[in-house]
Amino acid sequence: MKFKAMDKKTIPGVFHNNTFIGLVLIAVMFLFGLTVNHNFLSPKSLENIFTNASLLAFASLGQTLVIISGGVDMSIASCISFGAVASALIMKGSNANIPQALLVLVITGLLVGVVNALGIIYANIAPLVMTLAVSNVLNVIQLIICNGSPTGSLAPAVGFLGKYKLVSVLSMITFLLIIAAIFVYFGLKHNNYAKQLFAVGNNRNAALLAGINVNKVIVITYIISAILGCLTGMLLLGYVNFPYINMGASYGMLTVAAVVIGGASFAGGKGNFLGTIIGSLVLVNLSNILVAIQLNDAVKNVINGLVLLMILVFYTREKAIRQ
Amino acid sequence: MLAAKSISKQYGQTKALDQAELSMKPGEIHALLGSNGSGKSTIAKVLGGLVGKNEGEITIDGKEIQLRSAKDSLAQGIALAYQDYSLVDQLTVEENLFLNSSGTLKMGFIDYKKRFDQTFQILKQFHISAQPDTYVGSLNESDKSLLEVAKALVYKPRYLILDEVTACLHRDQVLVLFDILRKEKKEGLSILFISHRFDEVYELCETVTIFRNGKTVITTDLTKVTNDDIVYYMTGQKETIKKQHNEKQAAEKKEPLLSIQHLGVGTQVNDVSLNLYPGEILGVCGLQGQGQSEFLRAVYGSRKISRGNIIYKGKRLTKFSPERSLKSGMAFISGDRNSEGIFADRSIFENINISRSALRFIFHGIRLNKSMSEANQLIKKLDVVIGEIGDPASSLSGGNQQKLIFARDLLLNPSVVLLDDPAKGVDVKARSEIQGILRGLSDKGMACIYYSSDYKELTAVSDRIVVFYEGDIIAEFNDISEEIESDLAAAMLGATRTEAE
């Protein structure tokens, strides 16, 4: 009996452990990258990979929570775009304006999250559709506030966060992400909200009967996601240096991919931020390798899609559970 | 004549049918009676081609036939109307009626105009208040039941099997349906009528077959048997039905902990009043769908109450939600673990601790060490067999999963626990352990309302039993012993009501 139980835990455990396989995958990618480009693992190149992956991971943090709850948030990209454009507009290159910018971003995030959640809960609209609709509205608002061409510039403090290098491969952004990851790790383990979030995602009926205020949990989750999206926009502005329209557009599907590669289930109830970080690294690595191979864009996209498909098929396989 | 001879059907370990015999003659309405799990629905499904038999043969007019699918059965002229509908909600009434038969063809194409007219006629005949292009999803339960019968008749069968189709019908609808069935009978249709309502069986049918534990006990003319005989054949125990009242005992008890007055829930619960006293286990008995589940959920606050009052700990409840109920010491345990109890992917610890988490401030921290040791104590106390406390709940057996849900509620020290068939699909050992846990807690003053579909389970655990029938309490038993089991079985079928009328 005891032997059997150990068997089940240790042997397939490693191969079904998404974190482990993710790390192996990243190592393989590094090696492959090295064969394509000798400078692939130079400090400068690594720093670049880590920083880009960190930005993606920041954008995907909210997505992780939303997917755990059993939904999906397609409005994150528009929050990033809005966050970048709006904060440049408000900061006007001065540190003194940062509090106002943060206030506007948080309030916008709050509104976006509440609208998303209310549409999903009370109008019973599918999360994908509801958040896409809100995303379109927010994109237009982004255009309206800057009359179609972004003005203003980032405050020096934000530029410092976005570009400062601590040590050779460790940028400020990566450092911030590590702090956030530690915070989230303990938060997910020790916080009532996290336990309720997982429960809601895993079995909504049971959550309701167990006394959880399901609607409250969902509203909070979408609010967190939208606020984090807006703040990521500010960070992205710090990294890129100047705002442009639809800056965050490419992050939309990438956040979903990062979370799913990270081992979360679209059915909800499963997922963790460490997995999402690994997922972000995998995605950024993949795109860097494809750039290094110097193929034309169409072939690049096809390979990108195929590799992602392979990763998802082999990597998110479930260990059979007893029913 | 359609005859099923020595049919046996095994589902895993349980024998649903054991050498069962059944025959249907043309121009006859034949009743099939039996208590829960006696194999009525199984034989219906075997004849409908949905379930393959293990042994035995089915013949039509002496020739053996093979029924491998519903299509085979329809080809042989056997149509089945199901208790839980074979209708597609997203299609219209017309499309549903002609789902499997195109109706009249005109030059190889469906004659839509004629089909529409036919549908219109059928709806009129059945008094269904819907148009042919109404979506079935928007119909109410009783119209769906009628439509289910109409659909079976569209196939123009020679043998029609009706599996508890009257369960959701109002009296006037039943009369309409019976008129139609009698007319079809005169034209030579053979009907098998499966029902739990004795009065309807007497009204409609001429002959009856009674099943008990998958075996045919008797086939006879209905004029030759009395109500008591039928109960005897169904339960195997000869007892007359007597409604017991023991007001004295109730008066001796203290103030009720929970007092429910004239509670109504939609159409499922009409008017239920009962008192629950501290330290009491109140059994609720009844066939499926008599309103017990809705009643328990309404008290717990997960279903809306239409009428009536609930007085709990001396105060009238005005706002209802599971959250509030749990906060005030009222817990609920569903037997439907997979969809309403367990968080299969989450750890055993989380499953136990979740209700406590739910009742605290949402961003409150969890003191893992303390909570873990409390959870471990409960696991020991309830004797839950687990690997590690961090393993997912799906690693446990059904009985142990159910104990986890008990542990979840016990962590909150509830004063009332509402149980909706908690031992469903749980093996005998775990079942008696669960009952032991409840007994132990009720000795300490906790009160339970315990619904089970199995009356044997109730007589083993309850202090008092009420019987639900069609949304009302029709009988109450105060002296619980094994002797009342046959009375319970009879009351579950509404027998006392039949006598009173």
Mean pLDDT over the residues of chain A: 87
Q: What's the β-strand tally of chain A?
A: 0
Helix percent of chain B reads: 25-40%
Multimer state = heterodimer
Mean pLDDT of chain B: 85
Biggest sheet layout of chain B:
6 strands, mixed
Structural class, from helix and strand content of chain B?
A: alpha/beta
Which percent band covers the strand fraction of chain B? 15-25%
Number of helices of chain B: 19
CATH fold-level assignment of the largest domain in chain B: Rossmann fold
What is the string of helix and strand elements of chain A? HHHHHHHHHHHHHH
Classified in CATH, the superfamily of the largest domain in chain B is P-loop containing nucleotide triphosphate hydrolases
- What is the helix tally of chain A? 14
Q: Tell me, briefly, the overall form of chain A.
A: globular
Report the span from N to C terminus of chain A: 19 Å
| Unreliable parts of chain B | 239-252, 497-501
Span from first to last CA of chain B?
Answer: 36 Å
- Our count of domains of chain A comes out at 1
Sheet bearing the most strands of chain A, described?
none
Structural class of chain A: mainly alpha
CATH secondary-structure class of the largest domain in chain B: Alpha Beta
InterPro entries (chain B): AAA+_ATPase (IPR003593), ABC_carbohydrate_import_ATPase (IPR050107), ABC_transporter-like_ATP-bd (IPR003439), ABC_transporter-like_CS (IPR017871), P-loop_NTPase (IPR027417)
Protein name (chain B): Sugar ABC transporter ATP-binding protein
Pfam family, one (chain B): ABC_tran
GO molecular function, one term (chain B): ATP binding
